[in-house]
Amino acid sequence: MWGGNLTTVNPLDEPRLHRDADPVLASEPDDAVAVPPVVGAFAAGRPVKAVWRNTLGGLTFEVGVRPDHCFVKWSPRSSGIDLGAEIARLEWAGRFTSVPRIVGHGSDDDASWMISEPLPGDNAVTTRWKADPATAVAAMGEGLRALHEALPVEGCPFDWSLESRLRWTRQAARLGLLDPSRWHEEHQGLGIDGALALLAEPPDLDRVVVCHGDSCAPNTLIGEDGRWCGHVDLGTMGTADRWADLAVASWSTAWNYGPGWEVVLLDAYGIAPDAERTRYYRLLWDLGP
């Protein structure tokens, strides 16, 4: 039950049109959550708490009581989330930086799941850090820079390049799977044709790094000292222009802490604002993988 291979989902076959970091829907659950039987069986009587729910029906549970605890990430088949891809990325990235260590995984007809050891710290959108955005946002920027510096581009087996993402987006458009009503309000008025036209004219590359792939605030962990101490949710990690991460990380500061924090994140990263690249990569993020 706790081992074996996970089914690989090709993102070109099952486009994902939403993000775990959606500013409205993805969050710590504030209502009762039914514990899937497989998670309950693994817990074997230990306390189980749902700590995160994404926009596609996936759930993350904390099992046990700190410090003797672990996390179970559970994704229904209907989500299209490829936990096998995330496991491979975590195992590779763990050689270079602080990410969760996978200690078990499995799948059945209904869902797939993975079990990870805890890292120190808490995510950047807990009550404590939302009340101290200056510290949280600085930690996000410093942590993202550290991640980009630590992960080696040469030899990275994972791709999140502009070219691959544009292929995905164009195919999703041909299949009728893009829905502007689900985009951020600043992009909805473009319509599908307008958005694709803008994406057809990308900015020049700045610097290729191994990007996190989902660099929103909840995926940075912050320690007691207020410094970043790890990253989670690396399911789309891969080589790309660093602005693919920076555009989304800075955008997420507004979702989670309110306006005025984008430049703080960029300062902590050590880079000047770039309006053109920011606009482009936010649009690409909104439309596709």
UniProtKB/TrEMBL annotation:
<keyword id="KW-0067">ATP-binding</keyword>
<dbReference type="InterPro" id="IPR024165">
    <property type="entry name" value="Kan/Strep_kinase"/>
</dbReference>
<dbReference type="InterPro" id="IPR051678">
    <property type="entry name" value="AGP_Transferase"/>
</dbReference>
<dbReference type="GO" id="GO:0046677">
    <property type="term" value="P:response to antibiotic"/>
</dbReference>
<feature type="active site" description="Proton acceptor">
    <location>
        <position position="214"/>
    </location>
</feature>
<dbReference type="InterPro" id="IPR002575">
    <property type="entry name" value="Aminoglycoside_PTrfase"/>
</dbReference>
<dbReference type="GO" id="GO:0005524">
    <property type="term" value="F:ATP binding"/>
</dbReference>
<keyword id="KW-0046">Antibiotic resistance</keyword>
<keyword id="KW-0418">Kinase</keyword>
<feature type="domain" description="Aminoglycoside phosphotransferase">
    <location>
        <begin position="71"/>
        <end position="279"/>
    </location>
</feature>
<keyword id="KW-0460">Magnesium</keyword>
<feature type="binding site">
    <location>
        <position position="219"/>
    </location>
    <ligand>
        <name>Mg(2+)</name>
    </ligand>
</feature>
<dbReference type="GO" id="GO:0016773">
    <property type="term" value="F:phosphotransferase activity, alcohol group as acceptor"/>
</dbReference>
<feature type="binding site">
    <location>
        <position position="233"/>
    </location>
    <ligand>
        <name>Mg(2+)</name>
    </ligand>
</feature>
<keyword id="KW-0547">Nucleotide-binding</keyword>
<protein>
    <submittedName>
        <fullName>Aminoglycoside 3'-phosphotransferase</fullName>
    </submittedName>
</protein>
<dbReference type="InterPro" id="IPR011009">
    <property type="entry name" value="Kinase-like_dom_sf"/>
</dbReference>
<dbReference type="GO" id="GO:0016301">
    <property type="term" value="F:kinase activity"/>
</dbReference>
<dbReference type="GO" id="GO:0046872">
    <property type="term" value="F:metal ion binding"/>
</dbReference>
<comment type="similarity">
    <text>Belongs to the aminoglycoside phosphotransferase family.</text>
</comment>
<keyword id="KW-0808">Transferase</keyword>
<dbReference type="Pfam" id="PF01636">
    <property type="entry name" value="APH"/>
</dbReference>
<keyword id="KW-0479">Metal-binding</keyword>
